[in-house]
Amino acid sequence: MKLWSIMGNSQKLDGGAMFGNAPRALWSRWAPPDEHGRIDLACRALLASPLAGKTVLFEAGIGAFFEPRLRERFGVVEDRHVLLDSLAQAGFGPEDIDVVVLSHLHFDHAGGLLAPWVEGQEPRLVFPNATYVVGRRHFERARNPHDRDRASFIPALPALLESTGRLELVDGEFSRTLGEAVRFHFSDGHTPGLMLAEIVGPAGPQGHRHGGVVFCADLIPGRPWVHVPITMGYDRNAELLIDEKRAFLEDMLAREVHLYFTHDPDCALAKVVKSPEGRFGTTHEVPSLQARPLG
Question: Could you tell me the pTM of the whole model?
């Protein structure tokens, strides 16, 4: 099995919103803002093939589905569908994708499922053969969002996914579609039912599996958020997220699972480390993956 980092459309968002209660004097060292206070963010997907005998795309980025006015409001930089261009550069077309795994259905993680905006055309999916794997509890949130995050969802998307007949809603650690090749972890601090997909690493001498890769989604958007107290203003429950993040990082550290970042503009993959004082950080940082073997 090999892994590719697949870049989608990039985005610029307010740095204060992305770093919650961290002061600008601190976060601006990690992510220098522009004249409007916005920072650069990637919307990076992960491609794995063959995984459980399939070509699997983890997330789809923000895409190009917004009309021009909303594209400007939400800081989407490019007007073309960058994800499809990146897939083509890796040697894959939309029809080659067998499975799309979605951590959640906020537009900056699922908008790339849709074709680029064209005036007068209804939204449509671009992956004609894909099975879509989503956490059940989060899917219900997307169908009935709270006012707190209603604007983060694409109203038409749940029905479009259901209409394919290829939607799998996941309740537990594994899915029917991918079996034990992918283990799911769940988090509620950012949004209810956020689903973190771990590509399971090879078995060691005692049968324990180490060295996999986990898609951190919005539990840990990039390297600065590895520091446990750092959260986003977009998080539903910051204190819960901090507790979830600490337990998650302890687990990944103990099992030597690498972290995969969707929003970090300069780093796709890193190994988690912990200082003697108990602060988490990263090492062995990799900017992109091009047919990289797992482990």
Answer: 0.96
Query: Which residue type occupies 239?
Result: E
- Asked if 77 and 62 count as a contact pair (C-beta separation under 8 A), the reply is no
Instruction: Name the residue among 233, 213, 246, 230 with its Cα closest to residue 45.
Output: 213
* pLDDT tens, residue order, the chain (295 aa): 999 999 999 999 999 999 998 999 999 999 999 999 999 999 999 999 999 999 999 999 999 999 999 999 999 999 999 999 999 999 999 999 999 999 999 999 999 999 999 999 999 999 999 999 999 999 999 999 999 999 999 999 999 999 999 999 999 999 999 999 999 999 999 999 999 999 999 876 665 667 899 999 999 999 999 999 999 999 999 999 999 999 999 999 999 999 999 999 999 999 999 999 999 999 999 999 999 999 7
Going by C-alpha positions, the residue among 288, 281, 248 that lies closest to residue 267 is: 288
User: Going from the N-terminus, what domains does the chain have, and what CATH number goes with each?
Assistant: 2-293 (3.60.15.10)
Q: Measured between alpha carbons, how far is 91 from 189 in angstroms, rounded to an integer?
A: 36
SS (H, E, C) the chain: CEEEEEECCCEEEEHHHHCCCCCHHHHHHHCCCCCCCEEEECCEEEEEEEECCEEEEECCCCCCCCCHHHHHHCCECCCCCHHHHHHHHCCCCHHHCCEEEECCCEHHHHHHHECCCCCCCCCCECCCCCEEEEEHHHHHHHHCCCCCCHHHECCCHHHHHHHCCCEEEECCCCECCCECCEEEEEECCCCCCEEEEEECCCECCCCCECCCEEECCCCCCCHHHHCCCCCCCCCCCHHHHHHHHHHHHHHHHHCCCEEECCCCCCCCEEEEEECCCCCEEEEEEECCCCCEECC
Distance of alpha carbon 230 from alpha carbon 20, whole angstroms: 7
